[in-house]
Amino acid sequence: MDGKLIKFVNCKILRNHSLFEDCFLVGGGKIIDPEKIFFEEKRKPDIIIDLEGCIVSPGFIDIQINGGFGVDFTHDLFQNPEGLNIVAKGVLAYGVTSFCPTLVTSTPQNYRRVLRLLSPRKGGLNGASILGAHVEGPFINKKKMGAHNAEYISDLPNGPGSILDMYGDLSCIKVLTLAPELENSVEVIRWLVEKGIIVCLGHSVADVEVGEEAINSGARVLTHLFNAMLPFHHRNPGLVGLLGTTCENPVYFGLIPDGIHTHPSSLRIAYRSLPKGAILVTDAISAMGFDEGVHHIGDKKIEIKSNQAFIANTTTLCGSVATMDKCVRFFKESTDCTIVEALEAATLHPAQALGIEKTKGTLCFGSDADFVLLNDELEVLSTWIGGLCVWSQSPKFGDSDSYSLQNSTPI
Q: For every one of its 411 residues, what pLDDT tens digit does the chain have, with 9 covering 90 and above?
């Protein structure tokens, strides 16, 4: 379909914080300004596709996903690199068009051999785009380690040198979670930001003042808010208190709206405190897409019971089995926010946090034509990357090669 100009009609498109009935153009994998095409170039579309009233949202972006479909990124990829493709293709059914494969606390040897497999790449028929890795650890606090292996948790005695000693080449890292109370963390945060790496704060016992210093130094995101951090207290709010910060730099926060990790009331409190900062993440583990049974995260065995993931033989939660489309629906239901607000928490906000909002997380002119078609219940009907249909619930929208089935009309 290279060079073809496609016009999508009869839809409700999310653009500029609004959902309205309109049509849109795709060409060369981008969302095209129709005024330039029709009035300046005098060009007509090659194909028209009737979307039959669907909601058109930017594709979902998951910045924290540990694996799925039997694949754990930390544990499995070195022996089975194809596992990355299994997950990248599997998440298309849930509307995810871009994601950050997430590695939990591990050894320097394992980081070095796995990270090289997680370089950024464009999505398409073979799966969602990879934005780079999210390394969640090992620079975290043992007091809030959650499912991480205490044996591998590390401090930052040499500042940036500790980062290089742990990971080696940083070129495949997009996001890094650390505990800001660790010695030398401010120096490390500034150094990472200079290298274009997004710093998240999590698995921490830091108070709000330490958190504010980290934000002022360039950190941007709170990793899975409420989980693996001090609980909110009115005299010592901890990192949760950053939702009320007066820092000039923006603050974003990940939420796991799976009905297990975060109570609906907590979702409402967080969202209403800082609505523009909410980012939906699945924190999904290898069991996503599978039934109950024994799986793993890193080198730890986990058990799935009633859709909850626990470290085997404990009551410690360790990631979720939620899919992003379910997270969007649960978040909307729990917070009573609008469809637009729920969708932006899975699209625009993560793109803004990663600094890629000019190309991802939006359907403004010039952005990548990565989008998902939804019904009014926010169920995924089909997923598109670069203007190509990469997954569909049915053949009604055609395939990426022909666009010529029931509802597409060659001109």
A: 567 899 999 999 999 999 999 999 999 999 999 887 876 666 889 999 999 999 999 999 999 999 999 899 999 999 999 999 999 999 999 999 999 999 999 999 999 999 999 999 999 999 999 999 999 999 999 999 988 999 999 999 999 999 999 999 999 999 999 999 999 999 999 999 999 999 999 999 999 999 999 999 999 999 999 999 999 999 999 999 999 998 889 999 999 999 889 999 999 999 999 999 999 999 999 888 766 666 767 666 777 766 676 776 676 766 678 999 999 999 999 999 999 999 999 999 999 999 999 999 999 999 999 999 999 999 999 999 999 999 999 766 654 444 443 444 443
Q: What's the N-to-C CA distance of the chain in angstroms? A: 14
Task: State whether the Cα torsion 390-392-395-396 is positive or negative.
Answer: negative
Catalytic residue among 76, 283, 368, 370: 283
Instruction: Confirm whether 283 is a catalytic residue.
Output: yes
CA 310 to chain centre: 22
pTM: 0.93
Residue 221: what are its φ and ψ, rounded to 5°? Answer: -130, 145
Cα–Cα distance for residue pair 389/316, rounded to 1 Å: 39
Task: Tell me the residue type at 16.
Answer: N
Cβ contact 90:289 at 8 Å: yes
Q: How many Cα atoms sit within 13 Å of 205 on the Cβ side?
A: 6
